[in-house]
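pasting for ref
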Amino acid sequence: MLCCYSGYLKTNLPNINLITRMEKRHAHVHGCTHCACNNPVLDILKDDLFSPENLAKMKPGPGQTAQQPQTLMISGGTIRPMTGGSTDTVEAIGIADGNVVVTGSQTTVAAYMDQNYAGYQSKELTGTQTLLPGLIEPHVHIVPTAMMTGWIDVSPFNGQDLRSPYDLASVGSIINSNIPKDPAYVILGRGLDPSLMPFVQIGGETELQTINNTVLDNINSERSIMLLSASMHTLYLNTRALTHVYYLSKEVHDNYSSVEDYITQTGGQLQESPQMTPALTVIMPQIIAMGLDINTYLTELFKTANSRGATFMYDAGLNGAFQKLLTNYVDNHPALVRIGGALICASQNDANGLGNYPQLDTYTPVYYGHIKVVSDGSNQGLTGYQSTPYLCDAVYPEGIFNFPETGIPGNVVPPNYETMISTILASKGWPLMIHANGDQAVTFAIEAYQYALAQYSGAELRNRIEHCSLLTGDKITTMKQMGVSPSFLIGHVGYWGYAFSQVIFGDKAQSLDLCNSALAAGMRITLHSDNEVSPLGPLRMMEQSITRIMEENTASIEVLNAAECITPEQALVAVTYDAAWQCYADQWVGSLNPGYFADFVILAQDPLSLTTQSSQYMKMRNIPVLETWLGGVPVYTGES
């Protein structure tokens, strides 16, 4: 610790007038990814957070006793096993030993159960109660979300709905109502999203709300504040926190001429690892102490998933440490969800070090199904890589591409990027999930796939483009021809659509999440939350893909590109049958075929019974989840 800090705290903090431009001297362009797919916080701290010493200290979480699978025949209500992706119903289903053993008419199922499972129990659904396969979240971030549970929630979400109001005043109220009791603790918040705050007028232009140190000083200047953006790639600090970091970080102290220089240069907006690392290192003991409850937080996360009908979560950003942590959790806790995921690959060296793709024959918890490459940032974070500048003021007008190459124009796919994709796919035989948000990033992903697939001669792979936010008809055609499927973060339409159409993109927002066009071209699509970028909730994602209502606009009901609305049946397939297929899990889950896991959900109402004619808002997300079952065991029971 630098001795001058303790003395400095006895004086009043200076009132610094900061400049609005981003700090340039330490600006980090390469590798900036403003989304949950790459989390600098955990990347920075992973060696400490997941050290053997700290893993041993992590608390085991709430004690639970594993239940034995039930032997059961379920009939009545509405039962949709989704066999072959069909929404057709059956009268009954039989389960035993954790698996589905028979479906069909009540007479057929009863006869089979009588013959093979004498003494089985019966369960009768009533009225509108509906049984579906367990719903699937095909792109989430489990460990980062769990690790941040102890941070104050300053996100724009209240459950699965947008907070109202969500502005600087409401965020300030949340912060000041949850100040840590330990005076040595910094106020840590997560999920801050200026793009969902009221727009502001600057010089006659409509812009997104700017967050800087003076804005946070107006919330609380007496305690240090550090707020992590929803993207997890910007850390906002008030003046007291900046001062705290300056005097306790030798790196910062050595690189800035004074505390005033540090405050002025950064403006309380620390971007990416180079700027965030010193600040996070200063508070590392606090973060580690909060992280020791990770197993409890994981249980809470999985129970939230169960309460929303989800039984399968595919982590889109696994690394060795995360897989080890999750495997340890699974080994020591009763199963609440099934877990698979994609291994992050961030460089050519990572690609060269991969083994050959392991074929999946049986389900193993926390299996690897894909390799994940993050090519750009997020559109609402103004870092998705675009062919034309953002309409609003952005530090990087066209966003950021993570694999640039010197001498290569910004609209030409870099050869080193193509080489890395080809190494993963053609040389190692791995299926890929390429994160691409901006239209130029999507173009580059398609071109890289074309280059790699031209050199590939193995079995067909289920390659994906994640988010795939801005599409055109010709890109959809090319993706279909290559066998590449999109997974849409449909909250871009429901939650952020208004900001995109009014401030960020204008007319270009009409190209967001072209679900219907993709289906019309014969593609298989999925819907995802990217949790915790948006809340868990397959029913909510179905609703947003069906209505495409821009929820931030509370003045009227406004739909973003109504031609891209899909049917309830198509939406249900996207969160069950096709989601399982995309995640290489379709031999176990996604439908209730005999031999598949008895993973299912019982809802109070059939989501296919709701129509936009009966209620434009539908509120499919509010259908009560009565029961969620995993492997023939009830893991969630709600209220009817």
